[in-house]
Batch of 2 targets.
Target 1
Amino acid sequence: MNIKKAEFVVSNTDPGKCPGDGRPEYAFIGRSNVGKSSLINMLTGRKGLALTSSTPGKTQLINHFLINDEWYLVDLPGYGYARRGKSGREKIREIIGAYLDEREALTNLFVLLDCRLEPQKIDLEFIDQLGENGIPFAIIFTKIDKISQSKLKENVDNYKARLLETWEELPPVFCTSAEHKKGKDEILDYIEKINKKL
């Protein structure tokens, strides 16, 4: 899939105010500082589409971008940012939960994981909740340019092994580098394949 057009549509905290035209939505989520904005900009080929920041936890709204007039790319707030404080984290959790529960147009959720880290409890718990709620998702490992290929394989295998402790089968897994544009074609082809089945 080639992205010829990507435009910002709306930001808000209420899933009920998200676009109601029924176009499929592909949402991206991850812990703060996982490289979500950089990945979205890389996928769309638009440098400033999603705002990147050296300060984690900047995305606090549900952001809809219309892609090729066909589907929405949805940028969700990052979870687990400690400096938000308990009430701030709770508010973000409610926004994310409401979106995941209420959006019938949500077609697939991409869960972003930093490939440099050991399996994180907060990510594993979030993924298990997706399974319990029947939300279709795929996993994207980010920042693969920051570690060696052997370490990448080891970390990805560790994650898969942890997931297989509770999952019968694994979701699709993608490895990406926003800096080197790796994984772009695979993710966009995956979205296109789903869209053709809708």
Target 2
Amino acid sequence: MRAPCDRLLPGATGTLPGGVEKWDRQIERDAMPVPDFQTLMLPLLRIASDGRDHELPALRARLAGEFALSQEDLDEKLPSGRQSTFHNRVGWAQTFLVKAGLLERPRRGAVRITGPGRALLAENPPRIDMKLLERYESYRQFRETKRERPAADLEPQAANGLTPEEMMEHGYRELRAAVTGDLLGHVRSASPAFFEQLVVDLLLKLGYGGALGEGETLGRSGDGGVDGVIREDKLGLDVIYVQAKRWDTSVGRPVVQAFVGSLEGHKARKGVLITTSTFSSDARAYVQNIEKRVVLIDGGQLAQLMVDTGLGVNPLASYTVWRIDSDFFTQE
């Protein structure tokens, strides 16, 4: 079902559906107060030193208090947005301690310290990390079984204490950044006619133009600074006008004002201005204060949207990450 046009042109915010900004945003985890999972190991084992069974939610609450984490810290998500960073790291700290035999699981969702765990605490270690866990045979066997996988050694200590999920997501972001950079380079080297067709194709792939894909480039016949048109209905009562700027320098307010003027000439309410470069702050501020709905898409956003829609790229590989379905094991 086609998304309504207001999702593409929500006032003059210049925001598109599909979460473009989340890929633009650089996540600097080293600056965040949420400790890495290796840092969590020793405090977690100390909490369990009383010999009681500890439920995972209670462990998380104790650890959050010990590290004085705010609600904002606890709300921080992995790049996928599907899980709390803190919950993920506590889970992996618990998993590796269990694999080393320092904790055991007396029942689902609970852990308890073991004899080897008590012995290690008696040594008063300053830190428990992956290197220390190598002394335990059960942990070494666990690591060897992991080497059978193609992605073999997801060594967290080699990535500043990131959990396996975080390593995969960071790797994904790096690969995506490389692809979008190369993609934008290809777009910039293409001909003006190719670029004009590309931006129309992109809007059609995003779902605009109806089920039949009503959109076209105007080419040299285009006038008033309009390079393409997307018809939202068969009668052309609702139209989006497109202008494509294959520039290397920043696009300023005068260019945007000229495009808005061309919309006025066509008695149009909606427009999309796409460039391979960037827009100045004045240009972006201008579209926020006009009645017409105008979206500005810069080169970085263009490349992200092309990847999101599969335009100009082909999928190389996909991976499914599995986790235990706890509900399955509670069924009688």
